[in-house]
Amino acid sequence: MILGNIIGKTTTLNFKFLVKGNAKKFQYVQVPFKDNYVLAQIIEIEKELDRAVAFCNILGYREECKLKHLRYPLEPNTEVLVASEDFIKETLDLKEDKNSAFIGKLDGYENINIYLDLNKLLTKHVNILAKSGAGKSHTASVVIEEVIEKYIPLLIIDPHGEYSSLKYNNEKDKERLKQFGLESKNYKNKIQEYSPNIEDNPECMPLKLNKHNISTSELMHLLPAKLSNSQQALLYSVLNNINKIDFTQLILELELEENNLKYTLINILKYLEKLNLFSDAPTSLQELIQPGKCSIINLKGVLLELQQVIVYKLMKDLFEARKKANIPPFFAVIEEAHTFLPERIFGESKSSQILRQIASEGRKFGFGLCIISQRSSRLDKTVISQATTQIILKVTNPYDIKAIANSVENITSETEKEIKNIPIGTAIITGVVDLPLFVNIRPRKTKHGGEAVDMLQISKKVKAENFLEEAKSYDDKELLLVIKQKISVEDMELMGNKVKVNLVPCLYINCSEFNLLVNLNNGELIEDIEGGKGKSIFIKLELSPQQKRVFDVALSLKEFKAADLFAKSGVQFSEVYDIINILVNKNYFVKVNDKFRINPDLDLDFSKFSCYEKPDYFRLEYDKKLEKNYNSEEIKNFLEKFVKIKNSKECWLEVYTNER
Questions:
Q1: Is 475 or 239 the better-scoring residue by pLDDT?
Q2: Which 3 state secondary structure label does DSSP give 75?
């Protein structure tokens, strides 16, 4: 289809034509050249009273499998045609291969798919830059889905807990997915979440960092506070007196110092020790980085200063492990990157130095980075420029736009002006070819996780004519703290199961290493969330204060003699023998040869009962509330003999029973 004819002066880079057809800004056109065609793009259209003129940039022509540029200008009056989709794909070399990731469709061309080269992503990094609400988390999740599909090991730094939604299907966009040739999907079996804060994120495994490989200088860097020179000198002198980094030993050494500066240092170290983040048994790096696995580091509810410490230590250990080939090549996604990697004029983050090093050297070792930020002007410009692939969504802040234009290659003045006008769902992508492409990002296969929380559940769909009746029935429902089942009552009925909903009274306990759920109806420690069943382990321990001290020491020892209990309990040696005999008679201790140990019935591994669900407030209908038969305080008093309890709350567990 003819759009018009070239008019006026032409160059090897651009031309203009008098519009006769329906031309659109950023539309691709083709112009006869030699025995072939040249591909060009309309960058602006000027409308006058009696005519319209389109201004075009020449992209080139393909010859000998290469995109070549013109050596001499096009002839005036030459016809300008609508570029065919096949010609666009051929000229720009837009094709799929086994290492490509389907990101979306070329804007305005439903049949032209855009693919990212995953080899390039893994070795040369990618940035996703956008303002808040423009779709950066959605776009990042599309990239993540493609990476997971190719079995590339993946690690996500998730400050807000948005990416756990990758475990669930996208039920809302099934029709749109069909338009892109895709289906709703989840990656629940390929994702594991870790968090240093399992109190707020009970579905996560505890994240533990390695304290064995912390050097003196690294410890100084890790402390979540800025130390004065005098404080640093004091800490260095104390560190010289200990063989390895141990927070308890370090605190004891500081307490011996006659220097008032020690109190601030002691408080900082006690804070780190209380977090229980650094461990002799850290989370294995080989566990985090595995082919076909996505590890999410969920930092929701963690202080920013501590987030930066975690990112620094984790990234440093992973980088060192990758350089030694102890873990496979992998891809790391850093969400809210401006908080971990700020531009130097905004100050240094604990994690800045290691992330800069990975950005510049990671490609040599197969350590790929995806940097995501909503504040480009606050993000380190060197790191922005290190990425070969840039995905730019709508940005309106002029400082952010200028930062992008100054740091990203191939951004023309016309493209820069267009950044603030990009529709939601569309992105400018550089690095796929030698020019920016406008791409409509495909829908996610998984559930979107970046939406605002519907706190009162008031977005329930209600027919207009029944609104008052529906609203009244909704208000009558009781607001309860509940752990809900993953499968709803409606879904159960669709599967042909008529069920009743029972609410089981429970005690949700947050321990330092895991969370527990106790059935207050039958006293069982719950293993089966669906049935509310578990194991009865609660025995009323009748102990005097002295007996309790001995028993608590015994819990920390596998096997022991009387001398061991005497050394650690502070109880008189003569009393220790009497207490041991009493506890043997009560069947709390058992004798093994010349030693003793806790009765195996009491020596439980409570981590096997870890609960990964979290109670939340819901208004819901139910058929029956089961009776509460056990006292929460008595249960906590019993468990405190075995585990460290940080917090607890009573709640309800939703359990289905079949109707008869």
A1: 239
A2: coil
Residue 502 in any domain: the answer is yes
The pLDDT tens digits for 267-312 are 888 888 877 888 878 899 999 999 889 999 999 999 898 999 999 9
In CATH, what number is assigned to the domain containing residue 406? 3.40.50.300
pLDDT of residue 466: 47
What span, in angstroms and rounded, lies between the C-alpha atoms of 60 and 93? 12
Eight-state DSSP code of residue 560: B
Q: Chain centroid to CA 653: how far?
A: 27
What CATH number is given to the structural domain containing 572? Answer: 1.10.10.10
Distance CA 652, CA 476 (A): 18
Report helix, strand and coil shares of the chain as percent, to nearest 5.
35, 25, 40
Judged against a pLDDT cut of 50, whether residue 582 lies above it is answered with yes
CA torsion, ordered 546, 550, 555, 556, to nearest 10 deg: 120
- The DSSP code sequence of 494-522 is HTT--EEEEEEEEEEEEESS-EEEEETTT
Element (H, E) at 210: strand 209-210
Residues in the chain: 660
3-state secondary structure 141-209: HHHHHHHHHCCCCEEEEECCCCHHHHHCECCCCHHHHHHCCCCCCCCHHHEEEEECCCCCCCCCEECCE
pLDDT in tens, 120-174: 877 889 999 999 888 899 999 999 999 999 999 999 999 999 999 999 999 899 9
Is residue 454 domain-resident? no
Residue 366: closest CA among 325, 413, 423: 325
Q: Residue 92 corresponds to which amino acid?
A: L
338 and 425: one domain? yes
Residue 599 to residue 597: CA distance in whole angstroms: 6
Structure tokens at 65: 């499998």
Which of helix, strand or coil describes residue 540? coil
Nearest-angstrom CA–CA distance, 573 and 509: 36
Mean pLDDT of 242-258: 81
For residues 252 and 396, membership in a common domain is answered with: no
> Quick one: which of 353, 335, 336 has its CA closest to 344?
353
Region class of 431: left (phi > 0), else alpha (psi between -120 and 50), else beta: left
Q: Which structure tokens are listed for 638? A: 């019993």
Q: Is the pLDDT of residue 562 over 80?
A: yes
For 575, residues 6+ apart whose C-beta sits below 8 A from its C-beta are 546
- Average pLDDT score, the chain: 86
Range of the domain at 564: 546-598
